[in-house]
């Protein structure tokens, strides 16, 4: 009977992440918070500990090889999707403000995060310190967008700068991660690391050219027929590049997946391919990813020292982003109010921070005991951002058209699909009833 | 590096099943043949054996725990989808002809298949013999539909009868499987088996009522907002019922998934939910399922005796379906020509036969060495059906409107989605360029 338990685990994960997400949305919080909380609650940390102390048996969801593999696939698909949403032309259009904000917003948290580690663990390895810094660098695009969308402030000058900065921020964070994973792999040999990164860039360009030519040729000869092959080919590209990044170039697999996503965004049928991954992500892989992170947390290992570290990490993560990004915005000539809005909008952390931390854990660069503090930091950052943003944007609304509107498309599409299906069913029922007459 | 090989395996599976499917479609064969062949070719049976004899190392895709778990999930999703496509009202409308054809088309192959086993292995356990019979019972709906669609004969009297019979056939085949798995589980206790089946039916009715009320309530209060929760809830229902069927009622998990699908087909938003599983199936789970079956075949174990068995199995599978269904059609008053058409249309075997065989293997009721013959039988049946059907339907075309047209809807939808995305992107680009002016 044991062998069928994965079915029940998946069922509980799907139900609980969805229900917790709905609850956190009702509470005006990003849904990520709910999804993470679901894993924490049904995992060994809460339900496991509770049932053990009350009934003497551990009755909870447990981490399993299948779940962690699916979670890995989940990360790859999340990063692949993020890559597909990164439109290079839009980034160029939104100018240097976004880039400067992103750059200072990466460098300040990186430095402060590493500094914090040296403070708490003097003599820690440099790669470990930088890794904790890297965890603090990545703003969560999805959380920022969702918050701004709810506030109706996506198209203000601040909103557009936040969006552009968050996208560039992801790429900078990944470059960080690339360099660090390259360095942590073997004895530090910077020349070799940069050779490998250069090789990877060449590989991306070549794969991009091959895929682009193939898609252009296929698009011309097939048009809108046999559409299923495109998402399949896209996914195969993603898996291949993730594998190659890791095994051939010694770079994180998620960076390969992200690069594959950017290639697809530039190819014909890119939008169609992107629309298909939405489903596979929210229907299976993303819930498993979030829940799995919660499952791997064990609360009892939190010492007083670690609690202090958690508190310091939260403070540093908020201040470094707010200060770093605000500074960048000020340097670009935005006023004080706008700089505060932008800084506050970038405080959100999410998937990418978790992914980086997870990567560090896997590479034995981050100690397992730090996962608890990091998750708590992410949850607190995602909880406070919408609250402070709401206040910061009070009264600011504009109707300018910008990159923000792209994100509204995919939401609409779902609704249209549904009404179309309804209409087709009615027509079908009608025709059938006539043919019976 | 080993730990990242699953990415490459998945990439090869996606690419090869797709390319082989396209090739088999070009050759006027059902795509299932190609998908199966891909696993056979890249697995130990062909590529593994070839590389070993030429280079001394086995260089091929290998079965792995992750792949087989994903394949299991794949079967569950395939059966869940089949359940969602089974519309009880349509079945009732197409009358008793479909039912009689399905019934004789199940009983004759069941008897002849079991007889064949007794002939080749005198003294074989009764459950094993019946299991081989059960493998022969299930006509593949998808293959039949695809063949008839290509021929443009879906709406003839014969075409409609075939479709109805194929759907009922699936259900009868599953009832067979339910009884057999129930019997094989422990010492045969028919009363207990029927009690469990009765319990399961009650469970399905209760789950159906709960889910239906929930969906009706949610549909009324939410309308077309927050659509994502429905597919998630549907999948959770499927996983829960699959788990419960197996662990609580001792019935195959796939029957639980099929029942969950039928419940969803009757609920509000059923069409929307069904449309979402298409993607997850063809993008990940179905290719892995087909390829995995091919991967598990090892040709060298085929003795002369087994080759003879293969030949006999092929002959029995064709004759028993053709004869059984033809007989049923004749009993319902159709003419000789129509009875032949119907019989021939039902010869196709596919997913369900494989699923039943796989189940038998897992339960140690079917010997591993019989998997090769069964796969060859399925491939041959799917290859000859379109060829003979083409001949049988020569000149028969009609424009009657029937249950057949439902299957064309989902194909259309993909194309519409794509052109809509294109249109929205153009509008977006246009608006953006204007706002920049």
Structure description:
The structure is a homodimer of 437-residue chains. Chain A has two domains: 2-399, Na+/H+ antiporter like fold (Up-down Bundle); 400-437. In chain A, helix 16 runs antiparallel to helix 17. Chain A is globular and about 65 Å long. With 437 residues, chain A is mainly α. The termini of chain A are far apart. Helix content of chain A is 79%, strand content 0%. The first copy, chain A, contains 18 helices and no strands. Residues 398-407 of chain A have low confidence and may be disordered. At the A-B interface, helix 1, helix 4, helix 11, helix 13 and helix 18 of A face helix 1, helix 4, helix 11, helix 13 and helix 18 of B.
Short account of what is shown:
2 copies of one chain form a homodimer. With 437 residues, the first copy, chain A, is mainly α.
Tell me the structural class of chain A. Answer: mainly alpha
Q: Determine the mean pLDDT of chain A.
A: 80
* Most residues in contact: chain pair: A-B, 71 and 71 residues
Measured by DSSP, the beta-strand proportion of chain A falls in under 5%
In the CATH classification, which architecture of the largest domain in chain A applies?
Up-down Bundle
DSSP, total strands of chain A: 0
Any idea what the radius of gyration of chain A is?
Answer: 23 Å
CA-to-CA gap between the ends of chain A?
A: 52 Å
What's the CATH topology label of the largest domain in chain A? Na+/H+ antiporter like fold
Flag low-confidence runs of chain A.
Answer: 398-407
């Amino acid at each position: 009977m044991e062998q069928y338990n994965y079915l029940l685990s998946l069922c509980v994960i799907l139900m609980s992440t969805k229900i917790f997400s709905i609850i956190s949305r009702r509470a005006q919080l990003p849904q990520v918070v709910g999804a993470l909380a679901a894993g924490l609650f049904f995992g060994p940390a809460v339900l496991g500990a509770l049932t053990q102390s009350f009934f003497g048996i551990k009755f909870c969801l447990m981490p399993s090889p299948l779940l962690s593999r699916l979670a890995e696939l989940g990360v790859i698909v999340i990063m692949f999707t993020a890559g597909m949403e990164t439109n290079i032309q839009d980034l160029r259009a939104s100018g240097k403000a976004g880039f400067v904000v992103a750059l200072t917003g990466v460098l300040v948290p990186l430095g402060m995060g590493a500094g914090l580690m040296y403070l708490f663990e003097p003599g820690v390895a440099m790669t470990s310190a930088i890794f904790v810094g890297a965890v603090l660098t990545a703003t969560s695009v999805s959380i920022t967008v969702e918050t701004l969308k709810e506030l109706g402030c996506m198209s203000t000058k601040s909103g557009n700068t936040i969006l552009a900065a968050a996208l560039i921020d992801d790429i900078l964070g990944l470059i960080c991660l690339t360099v660090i994973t390259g360095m942590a792999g073997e004895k530090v040999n910077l020349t070799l690391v940069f050779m490998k990164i250069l090789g990877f860039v060449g590989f991306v360009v070549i794969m991009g050219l091959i895929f682009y030519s193939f898609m252009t040729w296929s698009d011309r000869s097939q048009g809108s027929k046999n559409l299923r092959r495109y998402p399949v080919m896209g996914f195969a590209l993603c898996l291949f590049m993730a594998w190659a990044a890791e095994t051939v170039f010694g770079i994180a697999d998620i960076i390969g997946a992200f690069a594959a996503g950017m290639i697809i965004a530039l190819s014909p049928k890119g939008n169609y391919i992107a629309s298909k991954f939405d489903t596979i992500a929210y229907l299976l892989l993303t819930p498993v990813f979030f829940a799995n992170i919660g499952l791997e947390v064990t609360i009892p290992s939190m010492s007083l020292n670690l609690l202090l570290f958690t508190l310091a990490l939260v403070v540093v993560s908020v201040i470094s982003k707010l200060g770093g990004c605000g500074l960048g915005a000020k340097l670009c000539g935005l006023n004080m109010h706008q700089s505060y809005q932008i800084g506050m909008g970038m405080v959100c952390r999410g998937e990418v921070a978790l992914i980086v931390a997870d990567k560090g854990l896997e590479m034995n660069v981050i100690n397992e005991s730090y996962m608890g503090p990091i998750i708590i930091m992410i949850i607190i950052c995602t909880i406070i951002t919408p609250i402070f943003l709401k206040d910061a944007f009070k009264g600011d609304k504009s109707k300018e058209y910008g990159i923000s509107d792209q994100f509204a498309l995919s939401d609409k599409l779902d609704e249209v699909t549904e009404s179309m299906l309804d209409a087709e069913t009615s027509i079908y029922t009608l025709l059938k009833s006539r043919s019976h007459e």
